[in-house]
Amino acid sequence: MYKIIFFDGDGTLWYPKSTKWSKKPFWVYDASDKPKDYLKHLILTPQMMQTLHSLKKRGIILAALSTHPHRRLEADFHMGHKIRHLKLDTIFDHVYTARPYPWGKGKVMQSILKRLKIPKSQALLVGDSYVFDYLSARRVGIECILIQTSYLNIPNGRKVRRKIRNIKMLLNFV
Ligand SMILES: [Mg+2]
Known about the structure:
By secondary structure, the chain is an alpha/beta fold. The chain has one domain: Rossmann fold. The chain has helices spanning 27-30, 48-57, 72-85, 104-116, 130-139; strands at residues 4-7, 14-16, 42-44, 61-67, 94-98, 123-127, 143-147, 163-164. It has a six-stranded parallel sheet with strand order 5-4-1-6-7-8, with helices on both faces. The longest helix is centred in the middle third of the chain and has 14 residues, at 72-85. It is globular. 34% of the residues are buried. One of its GO terms (biological process) is DNA repair. One of its GO terms (molecular function) is phosphoglycolate phosphatase activity. This is Magnesium-dependent phosphatase-1.
């Protein structure tokens, strides 16, 4: 049913090994004073590699998409390091970065889908942020599944249709 699945980076593909899903993952960047020092804090989230392989076997295109507080070139540089460090470079077909605005990922996904000629109805984003993932995707008509972490903050009165407690649950939806 899905032709392409986008995966958010921090808190989705990887998280800090000491705080896992108990706390927003961005502290690792503040705690690192040397460039790329943050790599030592990051590990893949549980069952991520097996799940990615299962999706790939089903013929689904895999894309990593992470928001960065940098300009495009610098963002791509950091993203490339994380992807290689976590040995994700051979499994992902595409690696992208988005600009640091709530609508950043939606914009990037729109232009990629247009280029790959894939309808929005066949795309999915998996993420951990209501604003940067869920709203960003829904605003441009793309489905989004959120990971139920302890820091997930859904405003009162708003509903997210699909949430997962672990990455493997994703296989039930695709
Ligand atoms: Mg995230």
